[in-house]
Amino acid sequence: MEMVAASKMRRAQERNIAGRPYDEKIRQVIGDLAAIPTEDGVPHPLLARREIKKIEIIHITSDRGLCGGLNANMNRKTGSFALEQTAPLVMITVGRKGRDFMMRYGREVRAEFANLGDKPTLLDTMAISRIVIDDYTSGFADVVYLSYPQFMTTATQLPTIRQILPVQPAAISKKENVDYIYEPDPQEVLSHLLPRFVEMQVYHAILETIASEQSARIGSHAQRHRQRGRKSYKI
After folding, report:
1. Taking the chain, what is the end-to-end CA distance rounded to the nearest angstrom?
2. Less Cβ around it within 10 Å: N or C end of the chain?
């Protein structure tokens, strides 16, 4: 079982790390596009900021336990964040452990997703992205956050909450600034790129969660073995 878990952990880590350069580059391109003035002066709907009357959180945990304090830490982090907000909250849960926690404490769950498996594709997560994009553009939600465990190292997974809507373009330094040529025009490219960006943010957060889960599960296995060893020694 440990060998299987270690193999899953390595694959999950590789998939997660491989997606990070794409995430950084697309942020830079969106930052450049967002800085170009529009003809009518109106920003793209996914960039537009407004008064926050309702908050939506995509809360991502695992479906199964036996992964140390990973899910408990995520639920505690998101629960504390929710208590700090003054506007009404609605949850979209990914993973049974987060869903059970939110429903137990009476949080409104707008949609729930489970059983995505250890190797989900972008297509498997599109329904999640479509809900939050539609909710934001329709005015149902005024800000959307992602809540997930960020994979740092095999021993460290960081509970993370960050805003994905409205999209916050990355600030581009002079060294990173590139004179892009856009076809057919910058605004049309931006209108196609922004939904793809949100989709990738959701997908990448799920990959981070899977990598964190498999790493935490290895740590949990090791801890149980050490505890058994100490008990045997005492006997």
Report:
1. 26
2. C
Q: Return the SS3 of 63.
A: coil
Convert the pLDDT of each residue in 39-65 to its tens digit: 777 788 999 999 999 999 999 999 988
Q: Is the peptide bond before 184 cis (omega within 30 degrees of 0)?
A: yes
Confirm or reject CATH 3.40.1380.10 for domain 2-228, answering yes or no.
yes
pLDDT at 226: 52
b vs e for 57-71, b when ≥16 Cβ sit within 10 Å of the residue's Cβ?
A: bbbbbbbeeebbebb
Tokens found for residue 170: 């990355």
Determine the Cα–Cα distance for residues 220 and 222; give it in Å rounded to an integer.
5
CA–CA distances in Å: residue 67 to residues 96, 153, 168, 209, 230? 14, 15, 33, 11, 21
Return all residues near 88 (Cβ < 8 A) that are at least 6 apart.
53, 54, 55, 108
Nearest to 148 by CA among 124, 137, 164: 164
Give the tens place of pLDDT for each residue, 62-99. 998 878 899 999 999 999 999 999 999 999 999 999 99
- The helix, strand and coil proportions of the chain, stated in percent and rounded to the nearest 5, come to 50, 15, 30
Give the alpha-carbon dihedral of 6, 10, 16, 18, to 10 degrees: 180
Q: Under DSSP, is residue 109 helix (H, G, I), strand (E, B) or coil?
A: strand
